[in-house]
Amino acid sequence: NAGVTQTPKFRILKIGQSMTLQCTQDMNHNYMYWYRQDPGMGLKLIYYSVGAGITDKGEVPNGYNVSRSTTEDFPLRLELAAPSQTSVYFCASSFDSSYNEQFFGPGTRLTVL
Amino acid sequence: DQQVKQNSPSLSVQEGRISILNCDYTNSMFDYFLWYKKYPAEGPTFLISISSIKDKNEDGRFTVFLNKSAKHLSLHIVPSQPGDSAVYFCAASVPSWGKLQFGAGTQVVVTP
Fold first, then answer.
1. What is the DSSP string of A19-40?
2. Which residue ranges of chain A lie beneath pLDDT 70?
3. CA-to-CA distance for B85 and B88, rounded, in angstroms?
């Protein structure tokens, strides 16, 4: 099992550009999550999904969009990138919402200049 | 509004001694708590968890204590090893929500 994989590992964007961060899990998990981590801060939830076709906003959804067409994939779309979106982005998955830990990908470091 | 707080941003401990990491929470609905460990340029990895029906959970060198009345939990690492040098995040959830709230993390440095 590869677990949770994320691409790309690094990316530099110019202000106003768009991009999609990819996330795939091979554990047949129902729940998937996108977090961002800013320096000295904890992880903030951007969006999450409880299954294919179902997504919901987290704490900091503005400037982002998600879709979940399959169990395995949960891409995060940034439209009109802004310097405030410079961060490290982590995708995670879990089997369900009960007493289960979340498994994290290695992260994508995004810089918006 | 930060519902999970780790008030110590860093901790330095000698190899072989005990590391104690603290975490406070404000939401009394939280009933499942987790600790994650994170190395630079990697994603967080699950370390240990505890549900609110327990006050202690052990896994090898790692023990988590929960004091519900004080809304406080702690992670003890005994003995500390150089490989324990990492950032440790406390997280809490109401399982029916399916979401975790994370603290800001504590950087642990284990010195020889």
1. EEEEEEE-S--SEEEEEEE-TT
2. 99
3. 9
3 state DSSP class of B95: helix
Say yes or no for a CB contact (<8 Å) between B102 and A42.
yes
Could you tell me the pLDDT band of residue B73, with boundaries at 50, 70 and 90? very high
Pairing mode, if any, of strands B72-77 and A4-7? unpaired
* Cβ-proximal residues to B69 (8 Å cutoff; 6+ apart), any chain: none
Q: Which pLDDT value is given to residue A1?
A: 72
- CB contact under 8 Å between B98 and A105, yes or no, is no
B45 contacts in chain A (CB < 8 Å)? 104
Kindly report the number of other CB atoms within 10 A of residue A28's CB atom: 10
Q: Given CB atoms, is A23 within the 8 Å cutoff of chain B? A: no
Task: Give A99→chain B minimum CA distance, Å.
Answer: 6
Phi/psi of residue A80, each to 5°?
55, 65
Listed residue (B88, B71, B66) closest to B19, CA to CA: B88
CB contact at 8 A, A4 and A89:
no
Q: Which residues of B are less than 8 Å from A43 in CB distance?
A: 44, 89, 100, 102
